[in-house]
Amino acid sequence: MMIKALLLDLDGTLIDSERIPRMAWQKAAEHFGFTADETFLNQLTGMTKQTAQGLVKKVLPENVDVEAFQAYRHQIMAQILKEQGIKAKKGARELLLKARHENVECIVVTSSYTVSVGEKLAAAGLADLIEKIVCGDEVMHGKPAPDIYLLAMERYHLNKDECIVIEDSKNGLLSAKQAEIKSILVPDLISPDAEMTACAEVVLNDLTAVLKYLFKNQISAVRGDDPIVEIIDQTSLSFDQSK
Fold this sequence. Notes:
Pfam families: HAD_2. InterPro entries: HAD-like_sf, HAD-SF_hydro_IA, HAD_2, HAD_sf, PGP-like_dom2. By secondary structure, the protein is α/β, with parallel strands linked by helices. The protein has 2 domains: 2-16 and 86-239, HAD superfamily/HAD-like (Rossmann fold, 3-Layer(aba) Sandwich); 19-84, Orthogonal Bundle (DNA polymerase, domain 1). It contains 10 helices and 12 strands. It has a 6-stranded parallel β-sheet with strand order 6-5-2-7-8-9. It has a two-stranded parallel ribbon with strand order 1-12. The protein has a two-stranded antiparallel sheet with strand order 3-4. Helix 9 (194-199) links the parallel strand 8 and strand 9. Helix 1 crosses helix 4 (66-84) and helix 5 runs parallel beside helix 10 (207-215). It is globular, with a radius of gyration of 18 Å. The relative contact order is 0.18. The model is unreliable at 218-236 (pLDDT under 50).
């Protein structure tokens, strides 16, 4: 497969930010007298705000005003961001630099809305390495629908065989699968289940492993739910050197 572009999810993949909305959800739920359990939080991961809204309404108690809850949750999230900040995930900067050196485009494809993406990339120290972005508020249907990956390919004149997706969430993997793009799973807060591993070409521990897998032809990797670390001879991917 001739790879011209990496389509990278943002939250939980390039930057360590998934924990922040989860913490805000849990604190806000406690404040309003209910529980945001792991199953619910896992469902939200990777979704756009619009797509998640239906799930939110289902779990809120009848006496809780949705707008009041969301306002409080955003207040908590802003406070956590101010106190803790956002860091790049292990290997993120190195992967982006190597891709640039090899003339492989790096495109962020994220459920986050446009207004927040630049700030997140800047806070994580990655803004200078990302020029091309597709955001959740640019499509009618967010992940797990394929729309956002289809838009990325259309906007940047790519076809599915020229791309590989890097994701951490089930919704992101399903989105890539429906767009018929091969993907790499780098788990974050959610342990991969059978459906997630079935969607991915390979499951790797972090972005340092992704760099080695893509650019050095061999890598220590964990496939599926097998805890055994393997050395994988990677021969199915190649890069366009004509650019």
